[in-house]
Design the sequence.
């Protein structure tokens, strides 16, 4: 009994990471209808940026976030303003193709620079410290921190979207682009800010991913799939739904892995397909106005 | 002769191969109300879109306050002091009434209009400020659209068919507030299909017919016969 409780709890905690993969993806799609195929590779890129920062400055991974987050946000702004803005229009296909290209460029660029070797960020003592929840149930500090950071990120995005002028501009642009321009909103800048924000979240996700497990240049696409699944299960446009989607995916994978180590990823996909079959709009779809 | 606030010079505009405007010229002076009337598809909305920077013109020029704005993007035009109330209102459906108004002040132009002032002009909006925009009635949505445009403190306000789909009593109610705008120094170009309403509100009237100016003159000098001839091309 306590054993399964443990499995589910670990799944929930990993779900926070998946929710962070998903939040950035969902934000970009919500604001500009852009499906970012390179999202997973950008997560891996953030992990490598953190690797370089921690190695060259000798700081621990969590502290490196103070540098990695602004670096990734700047990359996001430039990527959107300099490239992706030109692909946006009535057709969904050009941004899809261009971000697919970006994905390949990032993977091969990382392969050239860092080889195909597996890497991992070392967080030191904190990686092995645990806290006892119940008799016989121990939880690592790091997964706990990761989960609460994920909740803070989602809550932060929620506040930004519904309580700030930038969030208002995001929502207005998402509703009606030409009229948003009429109101004095430079949509090119708003899109670039959205991508910067998305990659700031990606940076946090990338660092936690890299502390948790090994990474190499080729693991991006699988993270993209996890992100997609979390977004769609949660319901497009709902940030808290995204967190729920991530947790469901994490728990499904944890239970699958417990039954048979080979079933981990498969179990996540099966649950995703089951939810898609029963509730194609996701669990918590945005109420349309 | 005072310098016009806005001058449209020989504007040609196209939708693909279809020419919507043929050498359209128009002038408005500070403090004036100009009406542009015409049948469906005469090019009235196209003219406003070209002025507001929502649509590129192929030839011609738009001069506002002595500088050409024809190449400016819409967000730049509004920062310069021209606001458009778009046809069909086009409020942001996922924003509340007040958020819609705040979006209007995005360009941060200084001036007399603020939340408090537009609520004074349209008290019903203050009452419903926290409702989502689609919860308003048609007339209230139109008021919200006008108020949203005012929030950018425009010197020139372009109104595209504000009477569209509204009951006559609501239309009269909205038109009765327009003099308050003029009193604050806002000049107005109103596009209308409702000729009687346009003639009552405006100093000067232009009549568009199939993309050309078919008639123009002082509102009180034009007779119904002359206007219907120009309107329908009889």
Sequence:
């Amino acid at each position: 009994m306590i054993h399964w409780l443990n499995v589910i709890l670990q799944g929930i905690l990993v779900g926070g990471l998946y929710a962070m993969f998903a939040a950035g993806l969902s934000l970009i799609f919500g604001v500009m209808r852009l499906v970012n195929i390179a999202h997973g590779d950008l997560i891996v890129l953030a992990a490598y940026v953190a690797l370089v920062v921690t190695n060259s400055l000798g700081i621990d991974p969590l502290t490196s976030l103070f540098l990695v987050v602004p670096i990734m946000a700047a990359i996001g702004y430039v990527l959107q303003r300099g490239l992706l803005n030109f692909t946006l229009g009535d057709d969904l296909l050009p941004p899809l193709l261009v971000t697919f290209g970006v994905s390949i460029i990032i993977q091969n660029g990382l392969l050239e620079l860092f080889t195909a070797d597996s890497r991992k960020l070392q967080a030191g003592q904190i990686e092995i410290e645990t806290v006892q929840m119940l008799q016989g149930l121990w939880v690592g500090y790091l997964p706990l921190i990761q989960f609460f950071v994920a909740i803070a990120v989602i809550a932060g995005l929620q506040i930004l979207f519904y309580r700030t002028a930038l969030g208002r501009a995001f929502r207005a642009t998402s509703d009606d682009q030409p009229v948003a321009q009429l109101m004095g909103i430079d949509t090119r800048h708003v899109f670039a800010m959205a991508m910067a924000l998305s990659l700031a979240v990606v940076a946090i996700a990338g660092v936690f991913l890299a502390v948790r497990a090994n990474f190499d240049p080729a693991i991006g696409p699988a993270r993209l799939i996890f992100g997609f699944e979390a977004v769609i299960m949660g319901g497009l446009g709902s940030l808290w739904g995204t967190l729920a989607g991530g947790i469901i995916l994490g728990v499904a994978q944890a239970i699958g892995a417990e039954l048979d180590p080979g079933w981990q990823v498969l179990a996540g996909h099966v649950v995703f397909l089951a939810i898609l079959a029963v509730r194609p709009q996701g669990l918590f779809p945005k109420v349309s106005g | 002769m005072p310098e016009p606030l806005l001058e449209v010079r020989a504007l040609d505009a196209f939708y693909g191969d279809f020419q919507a405007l043929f050498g359209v010229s128009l002038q408005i002076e500070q403090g004036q109300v100009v009406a542009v009337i015409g049948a469906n598809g005469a090019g009235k909305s196209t003219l406003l879109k070209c002025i507001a920077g929502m649509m590129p013109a192929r030839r011609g020029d738009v001069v506002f306050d002595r500088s050409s704005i024809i190449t400016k993007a819409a967000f730049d035009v509004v920062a310069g002091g021209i606001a458009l109330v778009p046809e069909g209102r086009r409020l942001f459906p996922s924003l509340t009434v007040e958020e819609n108004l705040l979006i209007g002040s995005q360009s941060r132009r200084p001036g007399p209009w603020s939340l408090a002032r537009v609520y004074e002009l349209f008290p019903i909006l203050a009452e419903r400020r926290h409702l989502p925009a689609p919860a308003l009635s048609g007339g209230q949505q139109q008021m919200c659209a006008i108020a949203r445009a005012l929030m950018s403190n425009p010197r020139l306000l372009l109104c595209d068919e504000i009477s569209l789909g509204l009951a006559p009593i609501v239309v009269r109610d909205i038109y009765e507030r327009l003099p308050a705008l003029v009193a604050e120094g806002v000049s107005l170009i109103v596009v209308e299909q409702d000729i009687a309403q346009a003639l009552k509100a405006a100093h000067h009237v232009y009549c568009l017919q199939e993309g050309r100016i078919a008639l123009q003159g002082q509102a009180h000098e034009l007779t119904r016969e002359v206007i219907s001839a120009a309107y329908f091309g009889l």
The interface with chain A takes residues 52, 54, 73-75, 78-79, 83-84, 86, 90, 92-95, 99, 102-104, 106-108, 132-134, 148, 152 of chain B (CB under 8 Å).
